Amino acid sequence: MPTTTTTYRNILCPVDFSAPSRAALRAAAELAVQFESRLTLLHVYQVPVLGYPEAGPGSPFRTSMAELAGRDLAEWKQEAERLARRTVATVCLEGVPWDRIAKYTQEHRPDLVVVGTHGHTGLMHVLIGSVAERVVRHAACPVLVVRETQP
Amino acid sequence: MRFARILCPVDFSEASYEAMLAAADLARAFDSLLMLVNVYQLPVPIVPRMALDPLFVGAIMKDADENLARLAREATQLGARRVESSRLEGVPWDAIVKLARDGHADVVVMGTHGRTGLRHALLGSVAERVIRHAPCPVLVIRPSSLARAK
Q1: Which residues of A touch B112 (CB under 8 A)?
Q2: Could you give all domains of chain A from N- to C-terminal order, each with its CATH number?
């Protein structure tokens, strides 16, 4: 009798506080309940720093971005804990989102990544690209791509 | 978000086998209906008077049916209580998206790569297109042999 080969012990859910991210969070929480997994929310914020000395390390600008991100993440942690019925870990990092997320998955090796997609197609897709697709390309584990739930 | 209806497109590649394993696990956990589907494309005759040898087509169909039955059996053994399998001809990504929509799939579980295509590509073209156009969440599974290389 073949045994289960897939277990989602550790689920990573990168979030950007958008509606698709909320859908991803709900999916991740649902899976965490079913598989009794550890759930981690990851938020990566990007500080536009090109040529702006005011946005350098230790600057008030950078500090307030970190604080704002942290505050939003704390709210999402509460919601996640309510849905997943367990403590949820949070990680807040600065950097280029898709790159930072990819590196995080390579370093921490979650069993599953659940990420939202904005579903841009056509020209928007070409110009903006897709963080979700880049995460899929660079993750070493299964990735669940969730779109904003239809009303 | 209930994963009650799972669509698992398969092409009998390593990745799609692993996708079936993941789909079967989900089906067991959520007591879902697991729909295994093989979308195939028959080669188009190049010369107008050339026709596909019915024996050749028949052999492909028989092979697909046997492989589908094998996957369905294994999915059942892994705990998926309701498994349906079918095959159809079509452009894979398009057929999968339509099946997800018309079949009211709650999730599509598929491999990142298929049997054809470029091994070194990070994401196969069928998976990429399904992710982009599917009406529901898509769970992509990277075959172990490629994942280990990372």
Answers
A1: 136
A2: 10-147 (3.40.50.620)
